[in-house]
Write a structure and sequence with these properties.
globular, Rossmann fold, 47% helix
Length: 252
């Protein structure tokens, strides 16, 4: 028996990295998972990996900034997997630059994917969750929400996710729905590797230097985040809502 037997989850940005790790973790514990990603091929590959491991998943190409696309994706998950219980808003991008160099387009795009995307998927999903008076929503924020050089857009979006989480928890709690956020620190993914290269560094060297500043002396992995998301999505977390948990190896 798995913690999520009989449950259906939807995870955005699940074609790779943290999202793929979360989708795989939920599936390994019994959930049927709708794997959403802007890249439809990546979504299909992630879903196929889950299926080959013995789980149940469907890959769906979806742009989380599109209300029509998000609504269609949620409807497809409900139709093909039989319902919806768990929502993980993970989709994200970076367009890092110093404030004076950052374009308006890059500022708007990052906010649209992270913050508008979280709003749209939550809004589309809550119709089903409210009707059944049960649900678990987990949003991905970041340590960068506290401010990070070269990330005015990303930090603003992730701070917004924290505020959105707290507000949604207040509004949806009476319907048996919890809403929480996870704020990762340095996680070894393609996104952090791209950041390293942007700085002119080898990704492994970048990770090594970062680990020296982290109390537990290592960088995180997608599995570290997936474990915390799984807790928030579980029955054990039924009295936890409106919270943001920083998962960063002890950094302050």
């Amino acid at each position: 028996m798995g913690r999520f037997d009989g449950r259906v989850a939807i995870v955005s940005g699940a074609g790779q990295g943290i999202g793929a790790g979360i989708a795989a973790r939920l599936a390994s514990e019994g959930a049927a998972v709708g794997v959403l990603d802007l890249n439809a091929d990546a979504a299909s590959s992630s879903a196929e990996a889950i299926t080959l491991a013995g789980g149940t998943a469907v890959g769906i190409g979806a742009d989380v900034t599109s209300e029509e696309g998000v609504n269609a994706a949620v409807d497809q998950v409900v139709r093909e997997l039989g319902g919806l219980d768990i929502v993980v808003n993970n989709a994200g991008i970076t367009r890092d630059n110093m404030l004076f160099k950052m374009s308006v387009e890059d500022f708007d795009l990052v906010l649209a994917v992270h913050l508008r995307g979280t709003f749209l998927l939550t809004k589309a999903a809550q119709r089903h969750l409210v009707e059944q008076r049960y649900g678990r929503i987990v949003n991905l924020s970041s340590r960068s929400a506290l401010g990070n050089r070269g990330q005015a857009n990303y930090a603003s979006a992730k701070a917004g996710v924290i505020a959105f989480t707290a507000t949604a928890a207040l509004e949806l709690g009476p319907f048996g729905i919890t809403v929480n956020a996870v704020a990762p620190g340095y996680i070894a993914t393609d996104m952090t590797a791209a950041t390293a290269r942007r700085l002119g560094m080898d990704p492994e060297e970048h990770q090594k230097l970062a680990a020296e500043q982290i109390p537990v002396r290592r960088v995180g992995t997608p599995d570290d985040i997936a474990a915390v998301v799984a807790f928030f999505a579980s029955e054990e977390a039924g009295y936890v809502s409106g919270q943001t948990l920083h998962v960063n190896g002890g950094q302050r």
